[in-house]
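Lab meeting, item 3. Inverse folding demo.
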């Protein structure tokens, strides 16, 4: 199996979502191979299918003045934040090639980030049985949420590298009250170059999902 990579750089959320839907349709019709889209977003709050408006804590006027976009979308999960300093990966994958195993697919995404953190940055991390994603102790460093259409996935993961953690105070992250979020910058006490981390993620995805 092959995996195509699209590095979209900094892109507003709606444009990236439109691109995902285009890729989704092409993958459903076998016009493209599985695709990983890597992107960084301006400050954006997204609401998944289980989200409630009250999980947005910041005042609407404040968010408008701050230039934050709010989008209700079709992935699973509750409210999440995307912003500068975060590597977002959207996976357009035909699950029929993976035995239609949704749980294993999500677990593999978690494993990608876990291995990158452990092997490249010496960060001990793992899973939380009550909440998808990757955790460093009791703090979440990567959120995961997907949608599936005709057995093809979209959406994916948001990996906090240099993300402004104060922005998570605008929401109830993933529906978890008193949730603690973290970033690689907070853990290591320095900023990182996102462009140097992207190849690490791509390499691990190809390895764990057994792409060519």
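The presenter then showed the designed sequence:
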């Amino acid at each position: 199996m092959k995996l195509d990579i699209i590095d979209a750089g900094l892109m507003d959320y709606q444009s990236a979502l439109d691109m995902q839907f285009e890729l989704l349709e092409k993958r459903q019709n076998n016009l493209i191979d599985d695709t990983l889209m890597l992107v960084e977003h301006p400050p954006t709050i997204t609401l998944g299918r289980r989200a409630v408006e009250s999980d947005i804590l910041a005042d609407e006027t404040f968010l408008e003045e701050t230039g934050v976009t709010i989008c209700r979308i079709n992935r699973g999960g509750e409210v999440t934040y995307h912003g500068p300093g975060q590597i977002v990966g959207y996976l357009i994958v035909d699950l029929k090639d993976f035995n239609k195993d949704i749980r294993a697919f999500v677990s593999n995404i978690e494993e990608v980030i876990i291995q990158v953190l452990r092997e490249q940055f010496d960060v001990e991390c793992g899973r939380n049985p009550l909440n998808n994603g990757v955790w460093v102790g009791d703090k979440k460093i990567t959120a995961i949420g997907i949608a599936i259409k005709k057995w093809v996935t979209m959406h994916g993961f948001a990996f906090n590298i240099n993300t402004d953690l104060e922005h998570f105070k605008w929401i109830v992250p993933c529906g978890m009250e008193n949730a603690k979020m973290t970033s690689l910058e907070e853990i290591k006490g320095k900023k990182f170059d996102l462009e140097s981390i992207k190849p690490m993620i791509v390499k691990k995805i190809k390895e764990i999902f057994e792409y060519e």
